[in-house]
Amino acid sequence: MTDGFRRQRYLIDFSLAAMGRRKVRNLGLLAVYSLLVFVLASVMLFTHGLRQEAKRVLAESPEVILQRLVAGRQDLIPPGYLERIGRIRGVQKIQARLWGYYYDPVVKANYTFMVPEARPLAAGEIVIGPAMARERGLVAGNLISFRSYSGRLFTFKVAEVLPQASELMSADLVLLGAGDFRAFFDFPAGHYTDITLTVANPLEVRNVAAKLAAALPDARPILREEVQRTYAALFDWREGMVLTVLSGALLAFAIFAWDKASGLSAEERREIGILKAIGWESGDVLRMKFWEGGLISLAAFLLGYLAAWVHVFHLDGALFRPVLQGWAVLYPHFRLTPEVDGLQLATLFFFTVFPYTAAVLVPIWRAAITDPDAVMRA
Amino acid sequence: MSLRCVLASLLRRQRLGVRRLRQGLASQGLASRRLASQRLASQRPSTLALAGLALGLAGLCATGIEAGVQERQPDPPSPALVRELGLTDLALFTEARYTRHLALADGHAPFQDHPMSFDHFPSASLVAPPRHD
Amino acid sequence: MLFQPAIIALLLAAGLGVAALGLAAPFAWQILRDWDLASGSEKQLAMERRTYLFSALVGLVLGMQLAALLLFVFNADRMAESFVGAMCAVGSLQVNAWGFPALTAQIAVFFAASQWLLINHLDNQARDYPLVRLKYALLLVLLPLLALSFGLQLAYFEGLRSDVITSCCGSLFSGESRGISGEMAAIEPRLAMGFCFGSLALAIAALGRHALSSAPGRANGMFAGLAALLAFPAAIIGILSFLSLYIYEHPHHHCPFCLLKPEYGYLGYALYLPLFLGCAAGIGVGVLQPFCRHPSLAALVPPLAQRLAWVALLALVSFSGLAVGIIWQSRLILLEH
Question: What ipTM was assigned to the predicted interfaces of this complex?
Answer without folding.
Answer: 0.78
